[in-house]
Amino acid sequence: MGDDHSRLPSEFQSRLATARRAVADARSANDKVRLAHALQQLGSIERRPPFMAEVAIGTFTEAAELYREFAMPLEQAWCIRHIGIIREYQERLEDAERAYDKALALYREHAEADTLDYANTVRYPAVIKNRLGKREESRRLWQETHDRYRQVGPGGLGEGVAEAAAWLTIFAIEAGDRQVANRWFARASEASSASGDPDTHKFVAEVKARLGDG
Question: Fewest CB within a 10 Å sphere: which of 7, 64, 111, 138?
Answer without folding.
Answer: 7
